[in-house]
Amino acid sequence: MRIASYSLILAVTVLLTACGGEEFQDLRDFVKNAGAEMRGKVEPPPDIKPYEPFTYENDTALPDPFRPRKPDARNPSRAGSNQPNLDRPKEELEDFPLESLKMVGYLFQKNVGHAVVRSSEGKIYRVKAGNYIGQNFGQIISVTETEVKIKEMVQDSAGDWSERESTLLLVEQ
Fold first, then answer.
1. What is the pLDDT of residues 69-87, one digit of tens each?
2. Which residue, 11, 26, 31, 78, shows the most beta carbons closer than 10 Å to its own?
3. 3-state SS, one letter per residue, for the chain
4. Could you give the CA distance from residue 107 to residue 114 in angstroms, rounded to a whole number?
């Protein structure tokens, strides 16, 4: 009985295999030949120019882009009209970038508004209008319950100084 059932299964398998061979031949031919005429052409890459190093020397008219530009104190026209006072003593908060400082509170004492500012090191400072803050010669213009307005002095690539206004907003926790 087992041999007969195995023989039947084998016969059915052979018949099914023989019937299905030519059914999708046209599809196989299409897939085989579909991309034969569609060969792309890639343009050759452009010629690479060799790198030529440039040495910045003191006698050239071009400034070295890797050295900080300091205003020339001997030449007032070069220093710019808005040059900050570089000789005044620096305050503690001028060591920190303005982005790392956060206003965390407000005090009103003796008719003067004071902002409570936290540095990136976690130390707390009390500042008011007139104090200096940040690394760009920022001077506090006004202090309100929600913000500290600051006038910064930034130097452009030509050595001229220009004003920029920034704000520290009260951070609620």
1. 655 544 544 455 678 888 8
2. 78
3. CHHHHHHHHHHHHHHHHHHCCCCCHHHHHHHHHCCCCCCCCCCCCCCCCCCCCCCCCCCCCCCCCCCCCCCCCCCHHHHCCCCCCCCCCCCHHHHCCHHHCEEEEEEEECCEEEEEEECCCCCEEEECCCCEECCCCEEEEEECCCEEEEEEEEECCCCCEEEEEEEEEECCC
4. 5
The two three-digit tokens of residue 111, written as one number? 């008719």
pTM over 0.85: no
Catalogue all structural domains in the chain, each as residue range(s) with its CATH number.
2-33 (no CATH), 76-169 (2.30.30.830)
Query: 63 vs 72, which has greater pLDDT?
Result: 63
The pLDDT value recorded for residue 71 is 52
pLDDT over 80 at 158, yes or no: no
More confident residue, 28 or 80: 28
pLDDT tens digits for 95-126? 899 899 999 999 988 889 999 999 888 899 99
* Residue 165, phi then psi, degrees to nearest 5: -100, 135
